[in-house]
Fold this protein.
Amino acid sequence: MSKIQNLTQWVTEFTDEMFQWAYHKTSSEEMARDLVQDTFLAATEKYENFLGKSTPKTWLFAILNNKIVDHYRKKIK
């Protein structure tokens, strides 16, 4: 599968679950949407770093969790 096909499949497959997780962590629908969008943007930019050693879901959720942590770090400053 091509990069575009993989990413499109991942968006379809994982967006809802990622949104639920981000919403659970932020209590903001808008922020949750932004974080999920930022996650897929980062995944697109770093796709070559995905070596398949973990599942796509694990990789995407790791990126999302880092985005959530970054959000709270910025909020503290």
